Amino acid sequence: MTVHHPAETHEHHYWQGAFIGDEEAGRRLAGLSTAVEAALGTPLETETVLAACDALATVLRAPEHPVRTRLARHLPEGEDPAVLTELAAHLSRTELTRKLRRELGGAAPGRLNRPDARETVYEAWAPVGLVAHIAPGNAATVAPLSIVEGLLAGNVNILKTSSGDTLLTQHLLAELAALDPTGAIADRVVVLRFSSSRQEWLRLMCAPADAIAVWGGESAVEGVAAHVPPGCRLVEWGHRISFAYLTRDAWQDPDTLGALAADVCLYEQQACSSPQVVYLDTEDERDVFAFAERFAGVLATRPAAAPPPDGHDLDPAEQAELTTTELIARLEEHLDLTRVFAAPDGSWRVMADTRPALTASPLHRSVWIKPLPRKKLLGALRPMRRYLQTAGIAGSRIDIAELSRTVLAAGVTRITPIGAMLASYPGEPHDGVYALQRYSRRVAVQTDARFATTACLDDLARPVVLPPPGGPLLGKEEVQELNRHVARADAELYFRSGGSTGAPALSLFSYDDYDTQMHAAARGLLAAGYDPVADRTANLFYCGGMYGSFISFFSILERLGGVQLPLSAGPDHRATAQALIAHQADTLFGMPSYLWQLLHEEKDSLRAYGGLRKIFYGGEHFTAEQQRTLKDTFGIEVVRSITYGSTDLGPLGYQCAESTGGVHHLHADLHTMEILDITSDRPVAPGETGRLVFATHARRGQNLGRYVIGDLGRIVPGRCPCGSHAPRFELRGRTGDVMRVATYLLNHRRFVAIAEEQGRYTGELQILLTAPDTREHLTVRVERSGTPAPERLREAFLAGYPELRAAVEERLLDLTIEAVDGSSLDRSPTSGKLRSVVDARR
Questions:
Q1: CA Rg, the chain, in Å?
Q2: For residues 392 and 412, what is the distance between their CA atoms, to the nearest angstrom?
Q3: Which helix H or strand E contains 145, and what residues bound it?
Q4: Has residue 8 got a pLDDT over 60?
Q5: How far, in Å, CA of 810 to CA of 338, rounded?
Q6: Which of 384, 364, 362, 363 is nearest to 372 (CA)?
Q7: Nearest to 696 by CA among 641, 730, 646
Q8: How buried is 273 (Cβ within 10 angstroms: 0-12 exposed, 13-18 middle, 19+ buried)?
Q9: What CATH class has 241-306+313-417?
Q10: Residue 492: how many CB atoms within 10 A of its CB?
């Protein structure tokens, strides 16, 4: 999408993707309700907003980028272009994701998930509908960031800017919308520039609103309040007053006075968090006057204020307030109520006052000093509670803890150290509330037992649409190289991969990303038939060199609230079986090769116990014949994949109750998937097998787009009988399982299928490739226990695999069947996984 830049200066309104003039804006305002309803009918994915905002942040940080250059032309006169870099910081994926997590509990708060997996109750944060934003004048970042907050909550947004403002907000949001290929952002943004005296337009934009956000003082709020319809939520971001509170030890500390002066001078007290009053924990007016004189000396050493950005001095009203306040304070000196210390040039003033009542300052380095003993603090401040914001407190650790509780009870919403009153931290609530919660509704859907395996209700309603992947294809080596450049702040969790197809490697995660992935895998387990209320689970994944699975499924069960026995896989099968029986485990998590050995070695005791009902496996596959044996021999009712994923990318797919074999649903809220040809980087035809390529959209500090994971698969067409819209794919082995032998491409999975179907073989199968002379040699290694006669298996392979038969008949390949003990099959030394193909030809 490209941005249409208005050819005429009168096109100063931005309406759902187009710049328009007054006449057209007035016409569209009359039909605002219809436009809102149409926009709300198209879902807005949170990821769509995050991706567009992050893309805009990237170009805003580039000094020479055309988008930044275009936007810089619309900055207010005298405004530092660095404000665009400041905007970029607020719009980055990292900051917005942190905001979503802190304020709405997750990076996809609009999805109807089960807050308690043990109940079929779904909750989500839903948009209120239409949010009308009444922005302040001459605040370049406030208006666009307010719209972004509305978008993150999924709302349609209409914004009024001041008639004296530039078109920065309109053009910034137009650039944001242009970075969204879905068009959903543009549909949800309207920006109008008009004077507050145009009451009819104000009435029209507020009439259909579900929430109205207004910045400014009481007069600004009153001007909008008259237009607030019944039931509409009024969100006031009004003026607030802040103060400092010093204990005796603190006010005698020169460093404290220096930090306090810094808070006063920064932004010339124009921020709501700037101190206007300094309270001393005393009743002695001599303390007040002495401190005021000392503090005046500190202020006198501060550099002069920078000239205003527009080059203009204070307006007459501001100058009159300064003069009047100082004059009255000087007159009251004769009553021994006050004492004034001021700069000869009027650049600062300190006014000591013996009366503790909270008094607003005329700002511009004007400070009241007042006595307020802590025992009277609550009574003095509480009458002004609706106006209080920040309290900067200085004192001992005990003082700060006790005073914090008191001032919070009085109505303060924010407490900081002296010297940090104007500082903030990512995700900090504003004026005692989270903006995203004010622009959202908490909604719930109660269902019945038919939804036991439905983890997310939205999956039954519509597919997730994520931005399409881009960039080059990445393999394991490229991802490992990227990992070396991940910032330490984003590398909070290190997982060692099993090295089943190569050397072991590290995968890096932030805790937030790990939490997102564990919740996704937990939803997948519910879909697969795991019951957190009834199931008693033994976690039998390996815990050691290959520790990722064990820890991950510990975390997943923790999030599901399920009962678990974290036993881990171990060599003492008898002890493990005894623990299963003693603690009445009925569900096993683990790798097929380990579970197969455990069950068969402890066959007698486990069959006598008879309590095992479910197996969820990962890392390898149970063949259809093995699953039949598990059910017939051990009474297992459910054998299903626990998840499909990788250590680098996390969970990628899950099975539902309708899935069989290698069929999985994609975790479509985390990843997009492509299937590319085996030999070239082009998409395969529908239904064909190719290389699986995943792009993940939920990783902090890493871009793992278009990762060639090393597996083969195909798309399963049509909607799943379980009702989910999540795409389905079928795993068809690893790229390493496809062998070029004697000019033919042979697949390990085909050998497994023939052995099962023709020979009723249930064990593991490994292929060894050698080239002892000019002719290649293929050895199929099978487990001796329960194996049909090798010659019978050889006949089955030749009869059922035409390409293999042709290679043998053409004397290009020798075929041998070798029966061995299962323990002698080659396995990965770190993960214990079977190496399906061992190529010793090189």
A1: 34
A2: 10
A3: helix 142-152
A4: no
A5: 110
A6: 384
A7: 646
A8: buried
A9: alpha beta
A10: 15
CB atoms within 10 A of CB 769: 19
Beta strands in 717-823, from DSSP E residues, in sequence order: 728-734, 738-741, 744-747, 765-770, 776-783, 813-820
Indicate the CATH number for domain 13-238: 3.40.605.10
Q: Where are the beta strands (DSSP E) in 99-208?
A: 121-127, 130-134, 156-161, 189-193
Q: Confirm whether 13-238 and 241-306+313-417 share one CATH topology.
A: no
Q: What is the mean pLDDT of residues 579-603?
A: 95
Kindly state the average pLDDT of the residues 103-132. Answer: 96
Cα 310-311-312 angle, rounded to 5 deg: 95
Interacting residues of 662 by C-beta distance below 8 A, sequence separation 6+? 621, 641, 713, 730, 731, 732
State how far Cα 169 lies from the chain centre.
26
484 pLDDT exceeds 90? no
| Alpha carbon distance 310, 332 (integer Å) | 36
Token pair belonging to 706 = 């278009």
- Detail the DSSP E strand segments found in 667-706: 671-676, 690-696
CATH number of 742-839: 3.30.300
Is 246 exposed, middle or buried, given 0-12, 13-18 or 19+ CB atoms closer than 10 A?
buried
The helix (run of H) or strand (run of E) holding residue 517 is helix 511-528
Give phi and psi for 236, each to the nearest 5: -95, 120
Domain boundaries along the sequence of the chain: 13-238, 241-306+313-417, 742-839
Residues belonging to the chain:
842
398-416 pLDDT per residue, tens? 999 999 999 999 999 999 9
CB 372 within 8 A of CB 353: no
Amino acid identity, position 479: V
Backbone φ, ψ for residue 508 (5° rounding): -110, 140
3-state secondary structure of 72: helix
* Amino acid at position 733, single letter: G
